[in-house]
């Protein structure tokens, strides 16, 4: 009898242990599961303060221009877009493009929030710099709408103000700007235009710019912050087809014998070499055309004893940036 009772007790104990183990393997009711973060910046009608996680982004698909003999670029920016586009006409015609039309809507230091406010209320607050002949003319009291409906643009370029270009939270108004531009393009029948992004550059190492402290007054910290912001916010946005990697082309050139001498005041590009690098980068990125054969060089550089060597560095820096837009490539001309 004792053996029967002992056997029954042993069986009950085994069952209890078995069911106890199964219960402990089930998920706890107190566990939480975080929903996935949306990377679609256009999915909300208002700016979303959350940012998608940073991922290793592949290079954008450069060279979407249809090569119809006409190249028309409109930049909505500030003094950094001025620097970028200054020599674009000469380089484009050097490449054999028959008709070149360039526009730059300029407000000094203008950021995305201000551009958004201006496009919403059709504010006539821009200086419109225009070039269809090799010479720049200025027209005052222009609005974004004025410039956009004035021609059938191939590309419309946006950019962030330099001081906050490496801060992802400063890009929150971008989806709304894009939405407004898309409406204007539809109204003006600019249906084949491509929206692109001008990734600007880090300040010179000894810059005294008032916002350099945001990046520990460190050029590489600033450069890496700009790249991170572009990869998180711009590359993930399907409405933006191309990134013009000027931040990287300038950083590439700084690894050459030119060194950290590509600005004129610590942040604006030098009139000759810095602007030349930026324009080469833009032309190569937007058209996909090879730039090795470009013979144009800014007149002030032409008389330099190292003119050809400087030209080679500028072309190399632009090409390497288009190939690897988010990584610095060491120059072969050190």
What report would you give on this structure?
This protein is of the alpha/beta class. The chain has eleven helices and seven strands. The protein has helices at residues 2-24, 79-85, 88-94, 112-120, 144-148, 174-187, 219-234, 246-254, 273-287, 299-302, 307-323; strands at 70-77, 99-106, 126-131, 137-142, 155-158, 194-198, 240-244. Strands 4-3-2-1-5-6-7 form a seven-stranded mixed sheet. The longest helix is centred in the first third of the chain and has 23 residues, at 2-24. 42% of the residues are buried.
Strand content: 5-15%
**Termini distance?**
96 Å
- Biggest beta sheet attributes: 7 strands, mixed
What's the total helix number? 11
Shape by Cα distribution: globular
The count of β-strands is: 7
> How many whole angstroms does the radius of gyration measure?
27 Å
Low-confidence segments, given as residue ranges, are 1-56
Overall pLDDT score: 86
Fraction of helical residues: 25-40%
Main-sheet strand order equals 4-3-2-1-5-6-7
Q: Class by helix and strand content?
A: alpha/beta
The helix-strand sequence is HEHHEHEEHEHEHEHHHH
